């Protein structure tokens, strides 16, 4: 959004169009995401994707409660 502000578009207008609150934007601007947090997020996504794509890992079938009795 800083690029838009440099182009003359106010942050207030940009936040309204994007349906974002100004306060979280300014909080993020004052304390941006660190490189290590980005790396951690990429690793978490890679683990999630590997788990999702592994055919050996499956959730139990819905409605299945173990062996039938009686």
TrEMBL record:
The lineage of its organism: Bacteria, Bacillati, Actinomycetota, Actinomycetes, Mycobacteriales. This is Transposase for insertion sequence element. It comes from Corynebacterium variabile (strain DSM 44702 / CIP 107183 / JCM 12073 / NCIMB 30131) (Corynebacterium mooreparkense).
